[in-house]
């Protein structure tokens, strides 16, 4: 039988309360000095704070995040194998103002030590040494850096050198730094190195044992900027770039990544801005489950099935986000977007039939697929009936029937014309017989 088709209505969770600006929360009680900044939940991807996240900024030694990743992913990288400092590297770094390791020409260190020198202590000479060894040349390594940036989708990033020395061709954005750092932290060695406070380098062929330290004072209990929940990742500084810091912090099951770029160059606001943002996040935000995957969100009409006229749709997975503690569910709305007004059977469990936008305070904070929760079989009778109906209702059938109608009409006209001529031929003028004799 034919079923009436109904449009699926939007399903909304409305429960009453206060309104907060989503993805642009404004901290109270302190100001952020950075030109560009970002605070992101590593658990959910929610952006709690942003300031000019796509604005072009100079990365300074934040550049070495990319440099380190290319070291660790290079086929030449062997942690225990050794490299020697070269005179060419020392000539390149001389006069640049970059911090240096004081390795002597010909002094050999393990490649894992080189990673600590580059990432944890930010030594520029070691970054150049890595570039020349792993890239074949500085230019070759810089090309690799830009290729990797393109691979990761860092559309606002370009590198001109592996150190972060000021260069108009070396720039990035806070959003790109976030993307790069999340990628880098998936590498276990990178994570271990950037979160280390101290590292001891064993005696080399030219120097005794030495201990190097992190440049991130948030990790160092011996500084005034120590923040007990902070870990890594990288500091940066030039006069043009200002003070920069990429860091993470974890507390009570919550994990955040903070990027601050372009803080005042003669101050230490990159540390205080970051710790202030972390305290604000830990004290004022919490996880909230907006909806689970066990309750239907809406329905979609189903054609060609005798089992049911409608299929309930569910979240593909639970949606959990980070929201202010004082926020209730009153401003949370689930807006569904179905792929079509109706769907034809058969339907398989897990088929994606639409999406749902999670809207909080008039901002979309997430999108989840809507899926069928069970199989729905198609009726053969209804399928055949649909096929026959579609066949006779198709444009080709209409054209065919129209052609037949035209041919019939032409045939009728020809028949009429033929009969008309036959009748004319049969007409004979009547001449009386008597007239013929005369």
Helix count? 11
Q: What strand order characterises the main sheet?
A: 14-16-17-12-11-15
Q: Give the SSE order as H and E letters.
A: EEHEHEHHHHHEEEEEHEEEEEEEEHHH
Mean pLDDT: 88
Low-confidence stretches are: 1-23
Structural commentary:
31% of the residues lie in helices and 25% in strands. The chain has 438 residues and is an alpha+beta fold. The protein folds into 3 domains: 36-266, DD-peptidase/beta-lactamase superfamily (Beta-lactamase), CATH 3.40.710; 289-372, D-Ala-D-Ala carboxypeptidase, C-terminal domain (Peptidoglycan synthesis regulatory factor (PBP3), Domain 2), CATH 2.60.410; 381-426. The strands form 5 sheets. It has a 6-stranded mixed sheet, with no helix packed on it. Strands 2-1-9-8-7 form a 5-stranded antiparallel sheet, with helices on both faces. A hairpin with a 5-residue loop joins strand 1 (36-41) and strand 2 (47-51). Mean pLDDT is 88; it is low at 1-23.
